[in-house]
Amino acid sequence: MNRIYLDNAATSWPKPDAVYASVDRYLRQNGAPAGRGQSHEAAEVSRQIAQLRTRIAELLGAPHAGQIVFTFNGTDSLNLAIRGIVRSGDHVITTQVEHNSTLRPLRSLEQQGEVELTIVRCDDQGMIDVDDVRAQIKPNTALIALNHVSNVTGTIQPAQAIGKLAREHDLVFLLDAAQSLGHMPVDLQQINCDLLAAPGHKGLLGPLGTGILYVAERLVERLAPLRLGGTGTKSELMTQPESMPDKFEAGNHNVPGLLGLGAGVQYLNERSIADLERHERSLTKQLLDALEATEGVRVQGPSQLVDRLGVVSFQLGQHEPGELATLLEMSAGVQGRPGLHCAPLIHQALGTADQGGTMRLSVGAFTTTNDVVAAIEGIRQLATMSLDF
User: Fold this and answer.
1) Is there a contact between 373 and 4 (Cβ–Cβ < 8 Å)?
2) Which of 84, 236, 266, 329 could make an S-S bridge to 223, C-beta 3.0–4.6 Å?
3) Are strands 172-176 and 141-147 parallel, antiparallel or unpaired?
4) What CATH number is associated with residue 249?
5) Is residue 192 pLDDT above 90, yes or no?
6) Position with higher pLDDT, 303 vs 182
7) Residue 341's domain spans which residues?
8) From CA 226, how far away is CA 293, in angstroms rounded?
9) Residue-wise over 64-90: b if at least 16 C-beta within 10 A, else e?
Protein backbone atom coordinates (compact mmCIF):
# COMPACT_ATOMS: atom_id res chain seq x y z
CA MET A 1 0.00 0.00 0.00
CA ASN A 2 1.34 3.41 -0.97
CA ARG A 3 2.02 5.97 1.73
CA ILE A 4 -0.33 8.97 1.27
CA TYR A 5 1.25 11.73 3.35
CA LEU A 6 -1.25 14.44 4.28
CA ASP A 7 0.28 15.80 7.47
CA ASN A 8 2.21 18.79 6.13
CA ALA A 9 0.90 21.01 8.94
CA ALA A 10 3.09 18.91 11.26
CA THR A 11 6.11 18.92 8.94
CA SER A 12 6.52 19.05 5.18
CA TRP A 13 7.37 15.78 3.47
CA PRO A 14 8.87 14.88 1.15
CA LYS A 15 11.46 17.62 0.86
CA PRO A 16 12.97 18.89 -2.39
CA ASP A 17 15.83 16.63 -3.50
CA ALA A 18 18.21 19.56 -3.08
CA VAL A 19 17.49 19.60 0.67
CA TYR A 20 18.67 16.01 1.09
CA ALA A 21 21.69 16.65 -1.11
CA SER A 22 22.68 19.80 0.77
CA VAL A 23 22.57 18.15 4.20
CA ASP A 24 24.46 15.09 2.97
CA ARG A 25 27.11 17.15 1.17
CA TYR A 26 27.77 19.27 4.24
CA LEU A 27 28.08 16.31 6.60
CA ARG A 28 30.32 14.32 4.25
CA GLN A 29 32.46 17.01 2.66
CA ASN A 30 32.54 20.05 4.96
CA GLY A 31 31.62 19.57 8.62
CA ALA A 32 32.93 22.95 9.80
CA PRO A 33 31.01 25.10 12.30
CA ALA A 34 29.75 28.55 11.35
CA GLY A 35 31.74 31.60 12.44
CA ARG A 36 34.34 29.58 14.30
CA GLY A 37 37.45 29.21 12.21
CA GLN A 38 39.40 30.54 9.25
CA SER A 39 39.48 27.41 7.12
CA HIS A 40 38.09 27.36 3.61
CA GLU A 41 35.28 25.11 4.82
CA ALA A 42 34.32 27.39 7.71
CA ALA A 43 34.29 30.39 5.39
CA GLU A 44 32.04 28.53 2.95
CA VAL A 45 29.59 27.63 5.73
CA SER A 46 29.44 31.25 6.86
CA ARG A 47 28.86 32.39 3.28
CA GLN A 48 25.97 29.98 2.79
CA ILE A 49 24.32 30.92 6.08
CA ALA A 50 24.64 34.62 5.22
CA GLN A 51 23.08 33.86 1.84
CA LEU A 52 20.17 32.07 3.53
CA ARG A 53 19.66 35.01 5.87
CA THR A 54 19.44 37.32 2.85
CA ARG A 55 17.01 35.05 1.03
CA ILE A 56 14.65 34.86 3.99
CA ALA A 57 14.81 38.62 4.45
CA GLU A 58 13.89 39.04 0.78
CA LEU A 59 11.10 36.49 1.13
CA LEU A 60 9.58 38.51 3.97
CA GLY A 61 10.40 41.97 2.67
CA ALA A 62 12.60 42.64 5.72
CA PRO A 63 14.77 45.76 5.39
CA HIS A 64 18.01 44.05 6.48
CA ALA A 65 19.24 40.46 6.50
CA GLY A 66 20.64 41.00 10.00
CA GLN A 67 17.08 41.23 11.31
CA ILE A 68 16.64 37.49 10.67
CA VAL A 69 17.62 35.41 13.69
CA PHE A 70 18.11 31.66 13.36
CA THR A 71 16.59 29.50 16.10
CA PHE A 72 16.09 25.78 16.60
CA ASN A 73 12.36 25.63 15.78
CA GLY A 74 9.19 27.71 15.79
CA THR A 75 8.70 27.14 19.51
CA ASP A 76 12.18 28.47 20.21
CA SER A 77 11.37 31.55 18.12
CA LEU A 78 8.12 32.20 19.97
CA ASN A 79 9.72 31.77 23.38
CA LEU A 80 12.44 34.25 22.47
CA ALA A 81 9.87 36.72 21.16
CA ILE A 82 7.54 36.44 24.15
CA ARG A 83 9.97 36.09 27.04
CA GLY A 84 12.39 38.51 25.49
CA ILE A 85 9.91 41.35 25.04
CA VAL A 86 7.46 41.34 27.95
CA ARG A 87 8.32 42.92 31.26
CA SER A 88 6.79 42.60 34.73
CA GLY A 89 3.42 44.35 34.88
CA ASP A 90 2.75 44.15 31.13
CA HIS A 91 -0.63 43.18 29.70
CA VAL A 92 -0.60 40.78 26.76
CA ILE A 93 -3.41 40.06 24.32
CA THR A 94 -3.54 36.74 22.51
CA THR A 95 -6.31 34.59 21.04
CA GLN A 96 -8.22 31.36 21.31
CA VAL A 97 -6.69 30.06 18.07
CA GLU A 98 -3.11 29.97 19.35
CA HIS A 99 -0.76 27.02 19.44
CA ASN A 100 0.63 25.90 22.79
CA SER A 101 3.98 27.33 21.74
CA THR A 102 2.39 30.73 22.39
CA LEU A 103 -0.14 29.81 25.07
CA ARG A 104 2.19 27.98 27.42
CA PRO A 105 4.91 30.65 27.71
CA LEU A 106 2.24 33.28 28.26
CA ARG A 107 0.34 31.20 30.81
CA SER A 108 3.57 30.48 32.65
CA LEU A 109 4.34 34.20 32.88
CA GLU A 110 0.79 34.85 34.08
CA GLN A 111 1.03 32.18 36.76
CA GLN A 112 4.31 33.68 37.96
CA GLY A 113 2.53 37.01 38.37
CA GLU A 114 4.69 38.65 35.72
CA VAL A 115 2.02 39.54 33.17
CA GLU A 116 -1.70 40.04 32.83
CA LEU A 117 -3.13 37.90 30.03
CA THR A 118 -6.26 38.33 27.93
CA ILE A 119 -7.35 35.62 25.49
CA VAL A 120 -9.70 36.88 22.78
CA ARG A 121 -12.31 34.40 21.63
CA CYS A 122 -12.79 33.33 18.02
CA ASP A 123 -16.05 32.44 16.25
CA ASP A 124 -17.12 28.92 15.34
CA GLN A 125 -15.10 29.14 12.12
CA GLY A 126 -11.91 29.92 14.01
CA MET A 127 -11.86 33.61 12.99
CA ILE A 128 -10.78 36.51 15.23
CA ASP A 129 -12.66 39.84 15.12
CA VAL A 130 -10.36 42.87 15.09
CA ASP A 131 -12.88 44.85 17.15
CA ASP A 132 -12.68 42.21 19.88
CA VAL A 133 -8.92 42.70 20.04
CA ARG A 134 -9.31 46.49 20.09
CA ALA A 135 -11.74 46.26 23.01
CA GLN A 136 -9.12 44.54 25.17
CA ILE A 137 -6.36 47.14 24.84
CA LYS A 138 -5.38 48.70 28.19
CA PRO A 139 -2.88 51.36 29.24
CA ASN A 140 -0.38 48.64 30.19
CA THR A 141 -0.89 46.50 27.08
CA ALA A 142 2.52 45.77 25.56
CA LEU A 143 2.08 42.86 23.16
CA ILE A 144 -0.46 41.32 20.79
CA ALA A 145 0.39 37.73 19.80
CA LEU A 146 -1.51 36.21 16.87
CA ASN A 147 -1.46 32.94 14.97
CA HIS A 148 -1.51 33.93 11.28
CA VAL A 149 -3.11 30.69 10.04
CA SER A 150 -4.77 28.14 12.31
CA ASN A 151 -3.14 24.71 12.40
CA VAL A 152 -6.59 23.27 13.18
CA THR A 153 -8.96 24.97 10.71
CA GLY A 154 -6.60 26.65 8.25
CA THR A 155 -8.36 29.96 8.99
CA ILE A 156 -6.40 33.01 7.81
CA GLN A 157 -6.59 35.71 10.47
CA PRO A 158 -6.86 39.46 9.69
CA ALA A 159 -3.19 40.02 10.45
CA GLN A 160 -2.87 43.20 8.45
CA ALA A 161 -5.76 44.86 10.31
CA ILE A 162 -4.42 43.75 13.68
CA GLY A 163 -0.95 44.97 12.72
CA LYS A 164 -2.45 48.36 11.89
CA LEU A 165 -4.26 48.38 15.24
CA ALA A 166 -1.06 47.54 17.09
CA ARG A 167 0.85 50.29 15.29
CA GLU A 168 -1.85 52.86 16.13
CA HIS A 169 -1.45 52.06 19.83
CA ASP A 170 2.35 51.63 19.71
CA LEU A 171 2.08 47.97 20.72
CA VAL A 172 4.43 45.16 19.77
CA PHE A 173 2.80 42.77 17.31
CA LEU A 174 4.05 39.16 17.23
CA LEU A 175 2.90 36.97 14.34
CA ASP A 176 3.16 33.18 14.48
CA ALA A 177 3.65 32.28 10.81
CA ALA A 178 4.12 28.54 11.31
CA GLN A 179 1.30 27.66 8.91
CA SER A 180 1.55 30.60 6.52
CA LEU A 181 5.19 31.19 5.64
CA GLY A 182 5.96 29.28 2.45
CA HIS A 183 2.28 28.58 1.78
CA MET A 184 1.24 32.13 0.94
CA PRO A 185 3.00 35.47 0.42
CA VAL A 186 3.87 37.09 3.76
CA ASP A 187 4.87 40.75 3.47
CA LEU A 188 6.17 42.39 6.63
CA GLN A 189 5.57 45.86 5.26
CA GLN A 190 1.87 45.16 4.70
CA ILE A 191 1.31 43.30 7.96
CA ASN A 192 3.26 45.75 10.13
CA CYS A 193 4.39 43.05 12.55
CA ASP A 194 7.40 43.66 14.78
CA LEU A 195 8.25 40.03 15.44
CA LEU A 196 7.57 37.10 13.12
CA ALA A 197 8.25 33.54 14.26
CA ALA A 198 8.28 30.44 12.07
CA PRO A 199 9.84 26.99 11.89
CA GLY A 200 12.03 26.05 8.97
CA HIS A 201 10.65 22.54 8.52
CA LYS A 202 7.09 23.30 7.43
CA GLY A 203 6.28 25.67 4.56
CA LEU A 204 9.95 26.57 4.05
CA LEU A 205 10.64 22.89 3.29
CA GLY A 206 13.79 22.60 5.40
CA PRO A 207 14.79 19.99 7.99
CA LEU A 208 13.49 19.76 11.54
CA GLY A 209 15.49 21.65 14.14
CA THR A 210 15.46 24.96 12.28
CA GLY A 211 13.53 28.17 12.90
CA ILE A 212 13.57 31.91 12.29
CA LEU A 213 12.59 35.06 14.14
CA TYR A 214 12.33 38.40 12.38
CA VAL A 215 13.06 41.31 14.74
CA ALA A 216 12.04 44.84 13.77
CA GLU A 217 14.83 47.37 14.09
CA ARG A 218 12.92 49.30 16.74
CA LEU A 219 13.00 46.24 19.03
CA VAL A 220 16.64 45.19 18.71
CA GLU A 221 17.70 46.92 21.94
CA ARG A 222 14.49 46.11 23.81
CA LEU A 223 14.37 42.37 23.03
CA ALA A 224 16.39 40.39 25.59
CA PRO A 225 18.22 37.19 24.58
CA LEU A 226 17.32 33.94 26.31
CA ARG A 227 20.57 32.10 25.56
CA LEU A 228 23.98 33.59 26.33
CA GLY A 229 27.33 32.23 25.23
CA GLY A 230 29.79 31.93 22.40
CA THR A 231 29.02 33.65 19.12
CA GLY A 232 32.41 33.53 17.43
CA THR A 233 32.48 37.34 17.59
CA LYS A 234 33.76 39.83 20.20
CA SER A 235 35.19 37.00 22.25
CA GLU A 236 37.05 39.46 24.46
CA LEU A 237 33.73 40.46 26.04
CA MET A 238 32.23 38.62 29.01
CA THR A 239 28.83 40.00 28.06
CA GLN A 240 26.64 39.06 25.11
CA PRO A 241 27.29 41.13 21.95
CA GLU A 242 24.56 43.65 21.19
CA SER A 243 24.99 43.45 17.42
CA MET A 244 22.50 41.60 15.26
CA PRO A 245 22.04 38.72 14.85
CA ASP A 246 24.79 37.60 17.27
CA LYS A 247 22.83 38.95 20.22
CA PHE A 248 20.34 36.07 19.86
CA GLU A 249 22.45 33.30 18.30
CA ALA A 250 24.64 32.01 21.13
CA GLY A 251 26.08 28.55 20.60
CA ASN A 252 26.76 26.59 17.47
CA HIS A 253 24.22 26.80 14.69
CA ASN A 254 22.47 23.70 13.40
CA VAL A 255 24.55 23.99 10.24
CA PRO A 256 23.28 20.89 8.39
CA GLY A 257 19.71 21.96 9.13
CA LEU A 258 20.29 25.54 8.00
CA LEU A 259 22.01 24.51 4.78
CA GLY A 260 19.11 22.17 4.09
CA LEU A 261 16.76 25.06 4.83
CA GLY A 262 18.70 27.14 2.33
CA ALA A 263 17.98 24.55 -0.34
CA GLY A 264 14.29 24.55 0.64
CA VAL A 265 14.05 28.33 0.37
CA GLN A 266 15.84 28.24 -2.99
CA TYR A 267 13.24 25.72 -4.20
CA LEU A 268 10.48 28.12 -3.11
CA ASN A 269 12.13 30.93 -5.03
CA GLU A 270 12.43 28.85 -8.17
CA ARG A 271 8.89 27.50 -8.08
CA SER A 272 7.43 30.70 -6.53
CA ILE A 273 5.20 30.89 -3.49
CA ALA A 274 2.36 32.21 -5.64
CA ASP A 275 2.48 28.99 -7.69
CA LEU A 276 2.59 26.86 -4.55
CA GLU A 277 -0.37 28.73 -3.09
CA ARG A 278 -2.43 28.09 -6.23
CA HIS A 279 -1.43 24.42 -6.15
CA GLU A 280 -2.38 23.97 -2.50
CA ARG A 281 -5.63 25.93 -2.80
CA SER A 282 -6.70 23.76 -5.73
CA LEU A 283 -6.08 20.59 -3.71
CA THR A 284 -7.82 22.09 -0.68
CA LYS A 285 -10.92 22.89 -2.75
CA GLN A 286 -10.93 19.35 -4.12
CA LEU A 287 -10.76 17.94 -0.61
CA LEU A 288 -13.31 20.32 0.90
CA ASP A 289 -15.87 19.82 -1.88
CA ALA A 290 -15.70 16.06 -1.49
CA LEU A 291 -15.82 16.05 2.30
CA GLU A 292 -18.77 18.44 2.45
CA ALA A 293 -20.64 16.16 0.06
CA THR A 294 -19.96 13.03 2.15
CA GLU A 295 -22.72 12.03 4.53
CA GLY A 296 -21.62 11.85 8.15
CA VAL A 297 -18.62 14.16 7.70
CA ARG A 298 -18.46 17.49 9.56
CA VAL A 299 -15.82 19.87 8.26
CA GLN A 300 -14.47 22.55 10.60
CA GLY A 301 -13.40 26.04 9.59
CA PRO A 302 -14.41 28.55 6.92
CA SER A 303 -16.50 27.38 3.99
CA GLN A 304 -14.98 30.02 1.69
CA LEU A 305 -11.62 29.04 0.21
CA VAL A 306 -10.39 32.64 0.32
CA ASP A 307 -10.50 32.51 4.14
CA ARG A 308 -8.34 29.45 4.58
CA LEU A 309 -5.24 27.54 3.53
CA GLY A 310 -4.58 23.84 3.10
CA VAL A 311 -5.32 22.60 6.64
CA VAL A 312 -8.61 20.69 6.81
CA SER A 313 -10.06 19.31 10.05
CA PHE A 314 -13.14 17.12 10.15
CA GLN A 315 -15.07 14.50 12.10
CA LEU A 316 -16.78 11.40 10.83
CA GLY A 317 -19.79 9.93 12.55
CA GLN A 318 -19.02 8.73 16.05
CA HIS A 319 -15.39 7.88 15.32
CA GLU A 320 -12.89 9.32 17.75
CA PRO A 321 -10.10 11.17 15.91
CA GLY A 322 -7.45 8.63 16.91
CA GLU A 323 -9.61 5.75 15.74
CA LEU A 324 -10.30 7.52 12.46
CA ALA A 325 -6.61 8.14 11.85
CA THR A 326 -5.79 4.48 12.43
CA LEU A 327 -8.58 3.28 10.14
CA LEU A 328 -7.58 5.68 7.35
CA GLU A 329 -3.97 4.56 7.43
CA MET A 330 -4.81 0.88 7.64
CA SER A 331 -7.42 0.94 4.88
CA ALA A 332 -6.07 3.57 2.49
CA GLY A 333 -2.50 4.38 3.54
CA VAL A 334 -3.56 7.95 4.35
CA GLN A 335 -1.52 9.64 7.07
CA GLY A 336 -2.98 12.68 8.82
CA ARG A 337 -3.06 13.75 12.44
CA PRO A 338 -5.78 13.25 15.05
CA GLY A 339 -6.37 15.12 18.30
CA LEU A 340 -6.15 18.67 19.59
CA HIS A 341 -3.08 19.54 17.48
CA CYS A 342 -1.42 21.41 20.36
CA ALA A 343 -4.10 24.11 20.10
CA PRO A 344 -6.60 23.23 22.83
CA LEU A 345 -8.58 26.47 23.12
CA ILE A 346 -9.87 26.65 19.55
CA HIS A 347 -11.65 23.33 20.08
CA GLN A 348 -13.87 25.03 22.66
CA ALA A 349 -15.13 27.36 19.93
CA LEU A 350 -15.53 24.51 17.45
CA GLY A 351 -17.33 22.28 19.94
CA THR A 352 -14.80 19.48 19.40
CA ALA A 353 -12.95 19.54 22.73
CA ASP A 354 -15.06 16.86 24.43
CA GLN A 355 -14.70 14.57 21.42
CA GLY A 356 -10.92 14.60 21.54
CA GLY A 357 -10.45 17.14 18.76
CA THR A 358 -10.51 16.47 15.05
CA MET A 359 -8.95 14.47 12.27
CA ARG A 360 -6.67 16.77 10.27
CA LEU A 361 -5.41 16.45 6.71
CA SER A 362 -2.98 19.03 5.35
CA VAL A 363 -1.59 19.41 1.86
CA GLY A 364 1.84 20.65 0.84
CA ALA A 365 4.15 21.40 -2.04
CA PHE A 366 4.43 17.78 -3.16
CA THR A 367 0.84 16.65 -2.53
CA THR A 368 -0.82 15.42 -5.71
CA THR A 369 -4.39 15.20 -6.93
CA ASN A 370 -4.08 11.42 -6.68
CA ASP A 371 -3.16 11.74 -2.99
CA VAL A 372 -6.32 13.74 -2.35
CA VAL A 373 -8.43 11.29 -4.37
CA ALA A 374 -7.07 8.39 -2.32
CA ALA A 375 -7.92 10.22 0.90
CA ILE A 376 -11.44 11.01 -0.30
CA GLU A 377 -12.07 7.42 -1.32
CA GLY A 378 -10.79 6.14 2.00
CA ILE A 379 -13.01 8.55 3.95
CA ARG A 380 -16.06 7.70 1.84
CA GLN A 381 -15.54 4.00 2.45
CA LEU A 382 -15.35 4.59 6.19
CA ALA A 383 -18.43 6.81 6.01
CA THR A 384 -20.39 4.08 4.21
CA MET A 385 -19.32 1.52 6.79
CA SER A 386 -20.37 3.86 9.59
CA LEU A 387 -23.80 4.39 8.06
CA ASP A 388 -24.28 0.66 7.50
CA PHE A 389 -23.29 0.00 11.08
Assistant:
1) no
2) 84
3) parallel
4) 3.40.640.10
5) yes
6) 182
7) 4-14+272-388
8) 49
9) ebbbbbbbbbbbbbbbbbbbbbbeeeb
